[in-house]
Amino acid sequence: MPFVKKITFSVVFCAFLSHAVFAQDVKQISILVDKPTVKVSPNMWGIFFEDINFSADGGLYAELVKNRSFEFLKPLMGWKEVKGEGGSGNILIINRGKENENNPRFGRVKVKSASGYYGLENEGFRGMGIEKGKTYNFSVLARKGEGATKIKIHLLSADGKVISDEATLQGFTAQWAKYSVSLTATATEAKAHFAVLFEGAGVLDVDMLSLFPKDTWKGRTNGLRSDLAQLLADLKPGFVRFPGGCIVEGRDLANRYQWKKTVGKVEDRELIINRWNTEFAYRSAPDYFQSYGLGFFEYFQLAEDIGAEPLPILNCGMACQYNTSEVAPLDQLNPFIQDALDLVEFANGPVTTKWGKLRAAMGHPKPFNLKMMGVGNEQWDVQYLDRYKLFAKALNAKYPELKLVTSSGPSPSGDKFDYLQKELREQKANFLDEHYYQSPDWFMQNASRYDNYDRKSSKIFAGEYAAHIKEPKGAKESEAMNAWVSALAEAAFMTGLERNADVVQMASYAPLLAHVEAWQWRPDLIWFDNLRSVATPNYYVQKLFANNKGTDVVPALMDGKILAGKDSLYSSAVIDKKSGQLLVKLVNTSAKEMPVKLNLGDLVLVTSNGSWTELTSANSLDINTLDEPKKIYPVTKDINTFHKTTVPVVLKARSVNVISLAYSMLEPLKTNSNGENKPVKP
Ligand code: AHR
Q1: What is the spatial distance between Cα 367 and Cα 359, in angstroms, rounded to a whole number?
Q2: Distance between CA atoms of 568 and 447, rounded to whole angstroms?
Q3: Given CA atoms 373, 376, 381, 386 in this order, what sign does their dihedral have?
């Protein structure tokens, strides 16, 4: 064969071969847009909030002062006494006992010297995050004794330099009253301290020494840290589950979460030790308490602000079964049940009722529209069933429209799980709360977990889940456990939740927030320090699903079968009947890129170019960190789909993809004059 011919032959042959290989390898996925199967619940993808990892005090709750009312076990924890310029004085912690049972302690400050100052410096929660040019609002409850003592305040950098203007409060009276003043920061500092200095010989009683940034979420007093609340809002969650988690149960019953202690005036909310203070010896946090400044009213308000349904979880007369396993006797369960009934009144009741009146007094006369409630957190065994039945009886009788969420135990299979699933289905429970903290492999293998669930029985609330990896060797950052591989596996699994949206009607990743220096549990959805926050890859997976949730599921099939792991491919698809969009999720968990072709069928008319959002990273252990927050970040590009019936895309190795198209359906088949069946264009 002459040389030229030989080359031509090789080129043609190779081209043919590569085309043949490519053609053979393209995965054909049929999206049956005209055959919607089930509805997607509007509150399908939600968030789980628990005060763990300094999520509330020191986190979402924007208060900067730690131990503001001296109620920690050590009354001066977080505070340091200071004096200068020849000043002297002391502080005496006085316990009012019965006179003020919820907030018994206050500080009696005695300034002994006519000149100079005596004062207190607060260290914040691992420091205070202060931003240059921003305003900070200080308030204090104070009562004057003898003499004429004033308060001067300013902010300090970690190395003790003054980083704000100085503000003064004076003219205190002999009755307790609240005094406020503002400061402006002159520098940005992640580890600032706050100085409260007393000048002028005399005695001043002080309590609730509080410092908030003026710029809280939606500018509310007693508000939330803006960047963190914004990240939650950006998820567009369908519900907010609060306040946990094990914190609902408490290590013992005395330490359980009681919502009534978290509402009303902030200074009347009784602080308790946070159960995560002592839970893990290797991550002990002796300064972890619940001030309840972020309480049930604020949770309801947050849910409303971000357009989510509130989902409170209440203690059912059982403490954590991993700790004490204490239970309230069945004949003494009434106070617990009454708390649940009263919560519905607090959320929804007219302002003429006792609890509705309190809601109105707190600034929200309109109801919060509570529609569901969890009875117990991660409980198991017959003691749970017995208590649940009494709760259900009382709640169903008074509020038949209220949906109840019940526990399925702490794990997604096994005796505890099987027992509760069977018994609670017999009880016609509304939602069974399943929890899974499992390996990435488990998540991928369970992508079809719900394809065969009973469709006519209780619904599922995937109330806590996260893929847990082994700690990578040499990992320095706290965020290391939120490696890309975990997010990828969760995405694969979530296609199965979405496909089965008639069974799984709510789902939430857990936990939500964690302070990089003060965490107890990893992985978490969002990490933060005092100034910055970082959304993990897992967050972006949640966001892709929640922001593209659609209204109806449509089949996504390969060779006529659902795609739940074949060739490392996972897919689910929804349409949004309101916006006329098709939203296809495609997850490629393999280390190779994967050409796929979406076949939309002849009845779909794609009316615009579409968009393709990719979330991917080169290495399984890649992470987002506070210093590099967008290493793994969704990228959206336009794709040419106008009037196309097929959409070819090459999925990157280890990638999560959302294809979004506007479409309309063609009219049903009609026979044309040639006797052919053709879809008719509108
Ligand atoms: O999300 C962390 C903990 O995991 C929750 O508090 C508990 O419900 C589960 O065991």
Answers
A1: 8
A2: 11
A3: negative
